[in-house]
Specification:
The chain crosses the membrane at residues 26-48, 55-74, 86-106, 118-137, 157-179, 246-264, 276-297, 309-326, 346-369. The protein is mainly α and 404 residues long. The protein is 75% helix and 0% strand. It has helices at residues 5-46, 52-72, 83-108, 114-143, 151-176, 178-181, 189-207, 217-239, 248-261, 268-295, 313-326, 330-339, 343-386.
Length: 404
């Protein structure tokens, strides 16, 4: 029996749907490899002056790919280009171009201008963050999320979740890099943390509720979170005077986790994911208090001089909670329900992603320390040779502009 015309059209559309989905997945994975993984290696190279040339090569390759990526773009199943992907793609092209211009100029002047050198390093690290945003836009386009009324809610989850991840990354850097782990600055770590928390709280207090609309249950929840943030931040700043360590940033994590653990959602699975997010955040705050109170001496080093495995818990908890919160938006929770999965399966998958991300961050930090050690060794060897006497009275090596 021959298939009728409507059925044939439906089957053709279904085959096109699967082929289009396969190509989008390949495109996304390729973007992950080049715009995030490859670019993050280039960012590490950029932090050491003697490896700037390698970082520029990697950034040039990524820049060329970003142009191709923007031209290709992500297209949803209705045939029109997703505006967010197009916008982030164009922004990434100009951002890469800016970094390359500054990087080539910095290389030309041999890192002699500290402002240019520091600017290049900072922008090189921000490239990775831009790549992550680009990939997030790809997911939004592939799954057709965050359109219309869902846009604000997705943005809130994305921004807040990314903030937790960035905080976890910063704590990992401070923990692993020795010259940052030993606090010799004017202020303690908690002074910086409390200041950011205070500013964030002020912004949330006055932006979570529209004055011309009646107060809702969600408005009370989000505004109260903003109030506790700036109140805790101010107290933390006061307790940080004279480079004192204190518990307020960690206590803020615990209070935030407590509030989110009881944040009831429309879907049961969403309520459970939010609850687990809260538990993880509370655990991370408790681990931070234990670390500051019992594992660090007066010089902010571990008592035995080594990093204990317990100290990795807080950065990991922040990264995990950030990914959980980013993945707890309304439409993503509905997708999990439609797939027939439960909250435990989804949480385990998210936790696996957080572990891989933490692994990659720690690997990059170890790579940075190794490059720094190698660069210093090479410089020391060159300096020793440069001081040797030669029969012609001339030095065989010119290293006046060479710096780590």
């Amino acid at each position: 029996m021959e298939m009728d015309l409507p059925s044939a059209i439906a089957n053709a559309q279904k085959e096109h749907f699967h082929a289009d989905w396969f190509l989008k997945c390949i495109h996304w994975l390729l973007s992950l490899a080049i715009l995030v993984i490859f670019s993050s290696i280039g960012s590490v190279y950029s932090l050491i002056n003697s490896y700037n040339r390698r970082s520029l090569i990697i950034q040039t390759i990524s820049f060329v790919y970003s142009i191709i990526d923007s031209i290709w773009g992500y297209r949803d199943y209705f045939g029109h280009e997703n505006k967010m992907c197009h916008g982030t793609g164009i922004f990434l092209i100009f951002f890469y171009l800016t970094v390359l211009i500054i990087g080539f100029y910095n290389s030309k002047i041999n890192n002699s201008n500290k402002v240019i050198s520091v600017t290049y390093k900072v922008l090189s690290c921000l490239i990775v963050l831009c790549g992550v945003i680009r990939l997030s836009a790809g997911v939004v386009s592939m799954l057709e999320f965050c359109y219309d009324d869902h846009t604000g809610q997705c943005n809130a989850h994305g921004i807040m979740g990314m903030s937790f991840i960035v905080y976890g990354v910063l704590l990992s850097v401070v923990l692993v890099v020795p010259w940052l782990r030993v606090n010799k600055g004017k202020y303690s770590q908690e002074m910086y943390d409390s200041t950011v928390i205070m500013v964030w709280g002020v912004i949330n207090t006055f932006t979570e509720h529209r004055p011309w609309e009646p107060w809702s249950h969600g408005d009370y929840q989000h505004t109260s979170m903003g109030i506790i943030f700036w109140a805790a931040g101010l107290l933390g700043m006061f307790l940080s005077i004279n480079r004192k360590r204190n518990f307020m940033p960690a206590l803020t994590m615990i209070l935030t986790g407590y509030a989110m653990s009881g944040h009831v959602q429309e879907l049961i699975i969403s309520t459970k994911v939010h609850a687990f997010f809260g538990y993880v955040l509370m655990f991370g705050g408790l681990a931070r208090i234990v670390e500051i109170s019992f594992l660090l001496d007066d010089k902010d080093e571990s008592i035995d001089g080594e990093i204990r495995s317990f100290q990795y818990l807080t950065p990991f908890a922040l990264i995990l909670s950030g990914i959980l919160f980013m993945g707890a938006n309304e439409e993503q929770m509905q997708l999990v329900v439609n797939l027939g999965a439960d909250h435990s399966s989804y949480i385990l998958t998210i936790t696996s992603a957080a572990m891989i991300l933490q692994l990659w961050i720690l690997a990059l930090l170890r790579f940075y320390l190794k490059l720094t050690e190698t660069s210093k060794t090479n410089n020391s060897a060159y300096d020793d040779i440069n001081t040797l006497d030669h029969s012609d009275g001339q030095s065989q090596f010119e290293l006046d502009n060479f710096s780590v």
